[in-house]
Amino acid sequence: MTANGLVRAGQFNQAARQGAYILIALLLPRLGVSRAAIGEWETLLFVGFVLGFGWTTGLLQGFLVHAGRLGEGAAPVFARRAVAVTGGLSAGLLLLAALLHDPLFRLLQLTGPPPGWYYFFVLLLARWPSFCFEQGLVLEGAVRLLITYAVVNAAGLVASFLLPLYLGHDLSVALRCLAGFAGAKALLVLVWTRFRAKAPVTDPPAAFGTDMRDWLRESRPLVAYAAVAALVGAVDPWIVNYWSGGDEEVFAVFRYGVRELPLLAALISGMTVVAIPLIARDKGKGLKLLREQSRLLFHGIFLLSLLMMLTAHLWWTWVFTPLFAESLPVFRTFLLVVGCRLVFAMTVLTALKLTRRIYLLGVLELVVNVVLSLLLAPRYGLLGIIWATVIASYFHELCLVLYLRYRTGITWRGYADLRWYALYAASLFLAYWWV
Description:
Elements: H1 3-30, H2 35-68, H3 74-99, H4 101-107, H5 117-140, H6 143-166, H7 171-195, H8 208-244, H9 248-257, H10 264-281, H11 283-320, H12 328-334, H13 338-341, H14 345-351, H15 359-380, H16 382-408, H17 418-434
Helix pairs in contact: 1-6, 1-10, 2-3, 2-5, 2-8, 2-9, 2-10, 3-5, 3-7, 5-7, 6-7, 8-9, 8-15, 8-16, 10-11, 10-14, 11-17, 12-16, 14-16, 15-16
């Protein structure tokens, strides 16, 4: 399987998972679910982000760097070990969060835990280890198996959660059914981890302890950086809850407005999953792949963003129902963040293992975001909070570009087509000003 083929398979997997959550968001209002109940569901997604984004993202990036240096036989063995270790870490963290759920929800400025929140933790217990499972399939080149898994996972997620709501049950029953599906998924991943064929003797893996120690050591700075990024991502919802007094309806309006561009994260993740190991093995070849694939993303993502920016008033209430008409200005403002997602300096830094102190730039972004949010929210409300995020995000990406050039001499042009990027980014801001 070629690198481009693996990119497409990884993108499809990510797109299927993200598409499932988008479909849930679209159908909840149409099933007659109240905005307050939708706010409870969005609150659970927010809690899951806070608990899991930092450490799972850092470990997964370290996973890709470490796997990129292993042979074809050792890499899949490492992937199976990583699934088991991630599962253990997930269980320990969720048990601690369950025991301390009251102070956790108070810390997040929430009025209290939504009904059935403990069932949602089962979903998290199944989801976090599966990230390494999915990348293990990529390492093995098991494209058909990965695509089948992606389809079944997305369909099961949607059906297990929405069908009870369609039949008239409340959110807690839907979460119970979702937990049942997640438990079955976790069991299948466990079976794969335990019984998958071992690596060829011609390419023996390292001892378990050595393998895991090297992976965790390489992941430490990435976890620190991702943890700071999680704080940056959590500060806006926290300020919204603080500003609104924990109003679940206001939180729902905010969450529906700040949804990522459809499938953006999937397309980016599917590309970087292949690019990071390739850059780690062959810098020149990897940077060329990153430049070529990112140019394709520019054409697709920026053009889609421009189209959605200019036409959102025509389809917003039809897609999200009048229940979330107030989210439209928030959505248009948040679309400006798209330009930050398409820089990829962090991808190169991760592949070259230049991440030891990179978390300090994340701390700087967090400070800028918090200060601007507190200054702008009293006057501009939700839009002020989003504008603070936009400004802080572009500032952070610029710092990463400059840091990469300072450490390696690699310019932005080395991994991105700046002519297209500048044209599209300027057009997006002009379109925002126009509407």
